[in-house]
Description:
The protein is of the alpha/beta class. The chain contains 18 helices and eight strands. Residues about 5-15 have low confidence and may be disordered.
Amino acid sequence: xxxxxxxxxxxxxxxxxxxxxxxxxxxxxxxxxxxxxxxxxxxxxxxxxxxxxxxxxxxxxxxxxxxxxxxxxxxxxxxxxxxxxxxxxxxxxxxxxxxxxxxxxxxxxxxxxxxxxxxxxxxxxxxxxxxxxxxxxxxxxxxxxxxxxxxxxxxxxxxxxxxxxxxxxxxxxxxxxxxxxxxxxxxxxxxxxxxxxxxxxxxxxxxxxxxxxxxxxxxxxxxxxxxxxxxxxxxxxxxxxxxxxxxxxxxxxxxxxxxxxxxxxxxxxxxxxxxxxxxxxxxxxxxxxxxxxxxxxxxxxxxxxxxxxxxxxxxxxxxxxxxxxxxxxxxxxxxxxxxxxxxxxxxxxxxxxxxxxxxxxxxxxxxxxxxxxxxxxxxxxxxxxxxxxxxxxxxxxxxxxxxxxxxxxxxxxxxxxxxxxxxxxxxxxxxxxxxxxxxxxxxxxxxxxxxxxxxxxxxxxxxxxxxxxxxxxxxxxxxxxxxxxxxxxxxxxxxxxxxxxxxxxxxxxxxxxxxxxxxxxxxxxxxxxxxxxxxxxxxxxxxxxxxxxxxxxxxxxxxxxxxx
Length: 564
C-alpha cells in the first residue's frame, strides 16, 4: 500500500502523461451532444470538470500500474509513445471541437430551435482549462495535507498505519468542511433567500375582489399567506367570461384553492384549512376535482390546469398546498420528507371528506403533479386504501427518475415498447404520452382508474439513472424519442455527467421539450383521463392553438415564472 501511495504522489508532482491522455479523451467525449443544448460557457465548465475526472482516473491507473510492478516502456520508445499519443489526443480534440457546433445543432434541430454558427471553441477551451487547473490545484493541496499528517505520525506508528489514518483524517476534514460549513451555510442562505422571495408582494398582482376567490376578503386564507407561487396560481385562473368567449357556451368560474406555508404550522393544519376553503367555495359541487401537488417552490404549472378548465367549461375545482420555499432539486436533496408528508396530508384530508359524500353527488377526483410534485403525488396514495372508493385517475408530468411507481411501470412495460414511451399490458390502467400522443399498442378501453404519465424523451429529470455511469440506458437505443439527437452516443462516466448538467438546465428547453411541458400536450393527457363531451376535433385543435398562443405571447399569468 505504501508503494501505491508513493506511486500516486509521484503522479501528482507534475502533469501525468497518462492522466492527460485520459483527460483529453474525456474532454472530447464531453463535447458530444446529450439531451439539452448547452451554451459555450456551460460546455466549458462541463468539459473542465470531465477533463479533471479523466485526469484523476489516468493518475490512479498509472499509480496502480507501477504498484503492480508491471513492465513499463522506457527510454526512446517511451518518448516516441508519448509523442504519438500526444498527436492522437490533439487530433481527437481538434476534431471534437470542430464538430461541436454541429453536435449542438443536432439537438437544436430535434427541438425546432435555430442553429448556432459556433460554440466559440477558443473561449470554451479556456474556460475548461481554468476549471481543470482549479480542481487540480485543490486536489494537490488535499494530497499535500494527507502527506503532512502522515509524516507527523510516522515516528510513533508503522508507516502503513500512518498512511491509512492520514487518509481517513483528511477525508473526515473534507467532509466536515464541505457538509458542515459549505453545504449547511449555502442551504441556510438559499432557504432564507427563497423565503424572502416567496413573501414578496407583487404590486401588479392585487388581491381578488370576488368573494369566490382564495385570498379575497371573504376567504379563510389570507392573500399574504398564499405566498408568491400561490398568489400567482390564483391570479392565473381563467374567468368564466374568457372561457365562454372561446367555447360559445355558458361557463363557470373555476375554483382554485391554495394554502401557503404560513397558513398553518403543520401539513395537517394547512390541509384542514385548505379543505374548509374548498368547501366554502363549493368546490365539491363541481364535476371535476383535482388534488394538485406543486413543485418545490410551491409553483403549480398553469399549463397543466388551464386546458382542463376550458375542456370542462370551468366546472373544475383544484386544490394545492405548499411544502417548501426551495426549488425542486434542493427540496428533494435537503427536505425529501417534507413534500411527501404534505402531499399525504392533503390527499388524506380531501379524500376522506370526498369519500363521505353521496356517490352520485360528489365530483370525479383526480391527482396531478409536475416534477417533484409528481414524485410526491405518487407517494401520497396507496392502492389498498382506495379500493372501496377508487380515484378516477391522475396526470403526472415529468416524473423524476427516483419515482418508485413510475420506475415499476417502466420496468414492467411490454418488451416491444421503448423505455421512453412504454406500453403496460393493454393500457387499461396506465398510459404514457409525449408530444406525439400515447404509444401505439395501447387498447381502446380504459379501466376504472385512468393514469397518464406525460414525459418527453429529452427530459433528463425523467431519464437520468446512476447506472448510466457504467451502462448504456435503454432509452438511448434505437428507436429513439422524437426530440433526441441522432448523434447522441454513450460514454462511461461522461454521459452521466452530461445528463446531470441536462437536469440542471432542463427548464431552459423550448416548450414541448426537456422539462417544459406544453399546454396542448397536457390537454391531450386530460382528454384521456377526464374526457368531456361537446368537443369536436377541430375545436380541440383550435383550443390547443389558443392555449399555446397565450404561453408563447406571454398573454397569461403564471407562465413567466416557470420553474420550481
